[in-house]
Amino acid sequence: MANKGPKVSRRTALGMLVGGAAAGVAGAKIGLSTSSGGDLAAIAADRGLTGDQAEGALRTFVPGGEFDEYLIFASGGHSGQMLVYGVPSMRLLKVIAVFSPDAWQGYGYGTDQGDTVLDEGSDPAKSDALRWGDTHHPAISETEGQYDGRFLYINDRANGRIAMVDLRDFKTKQIFDVPNLQTSHGGCFVTPNSEYVHISSMSPSPVTDSGYAPLSRYAEDFRGFSTWLAIDQETGRFVKDKSFQIELPPYTQDLADAGKLSSYGLGFINSYNTEMATGGVMHDGQIDPAAALEATATKNDYDFLHIIDWQKAEAFVGSGSGVRTLNGMRVIPLEAASGEGILHFAPEPRNPHGVDVNPTGDYICIAGKLDPNASVYSIDRIKAAIDSQDYEGTDPFGVPILELSSVLEAQVELGAGPLHTQFDDKGYAYTSLFVDSAIAKWSLGPKAGHDADAFQLVETLPIHYNIGHLVTAEGDTVSPDGRYMVALNKWSIDRFPPVGTLHPQNFQLVDLTSEPMTLLSDTPIGVGEPHYVQMIRRDKLKGVLRLYEPGTDPMTWSRSPFAIAAGEERIERQGQDLHVYMSAMRSHYTPDVVEARLGDTVRFHITNIEQTPDATHGFAIPGLNIQASIDPGEVVNIDLTLDRAGTFAMYCTEFCSALHLEMQGWLQVAP
Ligand code: K7E
Ligand code: CUA
Ligand code: CA
């Protein structure tokens, strides 16, 4: 594919240092010597690095004690967790436990916090104890369209849930099982002032009383839902009573994005199965490949972009009339949504994937999997078409369909398998090409500062391999930084040494300040599978991060009723309940021996009375499957009903001091 834009290579003194790509390292003469007398050019030559490779290493290295400029929060896919990396170093800083237990963080092994969060998010009607999720799309809370770094939301694509991570301490504080969604994909995104977090269904749900409906009644009995979850601005928690859903046809809603600035107040959701295919390749023992969902769901030339006016929806639920309640959630029925101008459709090339709104809010960019084009819809055209009721008809459910030619601004041919789009500060868009294993850089239109060169492919960068999402610095805010882009690649094939049959996935860091774009580094991911990512300036978190005051319950950020200070340790028996008010500090627990009887419930209230940052203690009772992590100032509670006699060793799992191994104790359970 021809590259059209400027192709001036920016090879700096840094690249020259080691020879530059064209010259090769052998030609290098300018040196930068090291304290050991080494010469950087000679070192690069010795290691067989090209100038580009050496430049990539120098541009991304961040010395210990110095910090990365950006953080990325990456979904961990079906590991259920979230990954935090520094950019440009691409060093893994933390794996935040979200939907799956994590022993290091004491999440899901008997403590009040982790177990409460995991259990709250686990509907017993669905499963005994859900302990996994498939994280896809993280979203950082926003103020006026800018990341404010307070809270982070992420959906569980598998189980129709959403989690809130508190960025004051990087801990998951809530998992919400969204009513009426069995699986979810369209979200999360936050509206520009974090008024709502959006999450919509993927596979539609039967809306019958029993939860069962024959697939032959798919159109009648199955529905999708667009969910708008209200946020408590203090705690970041979801407020169910202020939230609502909009009933949608069973079209398999896919990705979604929030309008901003000129499109503020709107939300956009793709769909790919307006054919309402349900699969079913086997009939009477015969296999009919033509009945496969992938075949039937790609029959129509167009599916529907859903355009949702969430402010109108909010006013409608506020008025109260015509709103249904379904499984505890307020729902705007489909007829009302289409009749009240809350929901419109616009045709979009078949089976699209990503929908992404550019920073000015003017362009809604849809990438189409089966279509080599990015399709750009303009918000001015959409608003005008809605105002003049410029409809080409309605769908079978009565939803008005806007005239395609009236709302489509441009189509830009990018390459094979376009999926997701990100943006920079110069009016360019970057779209991942899954089939081509490449990223296409292209220009937006006049509203993004491109006139004569509007909607043109600028260049493509090969990626290794099969890219899914990509992210640019603050790339889905109203003011992206450009600078860096990370490609999230599904395959790595030959980029790393084989580590068994399941290969690492690959993050590739790209420099956006150069023309053409240059690849800086590869980073294998030890857990998978990553989908979307948020990249935020690290300094935005400085004012957000907090340490715990002595005796803090992190769930409330206030003093725990069970907090103690040094000297207040005690054991109190109340019938069968044995309350153990314990302190942890280097290198002992007080008390360190607890004598209980079979049938008692021991209630540990452990306060880490340290005030030194990073002086975390663990608390494990291996024989009883207990593991806590207690940060300085934190109080952790553990309730343990003793149904087995024994003398159980307790120990500190965090290597906290020279006498860490001595930080142990005993729980005696007398028969
Ligand atoms: Cu393309 Cu879930 Cu965002 Cu993965 S989805 S790639
Ligand atoms: Cu406390 Cu080891
Ligand atoms: Ca389709």
What can you see in these coordinates?
- This protein is mostly beta strands.
- It is built from 11 helices and 47 strands.
- Strands 8, 9, 10, 11, 12, 18 and 19 form a 7-stranded mixed β-sheet that branches. Strands 38, 39, 40, 42 and 45 form a 5-stranded mixed β-sheet that branches.
- Strand 38 (570-574) and strand 39 form a beta hairpin.
- Bound molecules: sulfanyl-(tricuprio-$l^{4}-sulfanyl)copper, dinuclear copper ion (CUA) and calcium ion.
Brief descriptors of the model:
single chain, 671 residues, mainly beta, five-stranded mixed beta sheet, binds sulfanyl-(tricuprio-$l^{4}-sulfanyl)copper, binds dinuclear copper ion, binds calcium ion
Secondary structure elements and pairings:
Elements: H1 13-17, H2 20-23, H3 40-46, H4 51-60, E1 70-75, E2 82-87, E3 92-96, H5 112-120, E4 135-143, E5 146-156, E6 161-166, E7 171-177, E8 184-190, E9 196-201, E10 205-206, H6 218-221, E11 222-231, E12 238-248, E13 253-258, E14 266-271, E15 282-283, E16 286-287, H7 293-296, E17 302-309, H8 310-319, E18 324-326, E19 329-332, H9 334-339, E20 343-349, E21 355-357, E22 363-368, E23 371-378, H10 379-387, E24 391-394, E25 400-402, H11 404-407, E26 408-413, E27 418-423, E28 428-433, E29 438-443, E30 457-462, E31 467-473, E32 482-489, E33 505-511, E34 518-525, E35 533-537, E36 552-553, E37 558-559, E38 570-574, E39 577-585, E40 588-590, E41 593-597, E42 601-608, E43 617-621, E44 626-630, E45 635-641, E46 646-651, E47 664-670
Parallel strand pairs: 12-19, 39-42, 41-47
Antiparallel strand pairs: 1-2, 1-35, 2-3, 4-5, 5-6, 6-7, 8-9, 9-11, 10-11, 11-12, 13-14, 14-17, 15-16, 17-20, 18-19, 21-22, 22-23, 23-26, 24-25, 27-28, 28-29, 29-30, 31-32, 32-33, 33-34, 36-37, 38-39, 39-40, 42-45, 43-44, 46-47
Bound molecules: sulfanyl-(tricuprio-$l^{4}-sulfanyl)copper (K7E), dinuclear copper ion and calcium ion.
The site of sulfanyl-(tricuprio-$l^{4}-sulfanyl)copper has 12 residues, from strand 4, strand 27 and strand 31.
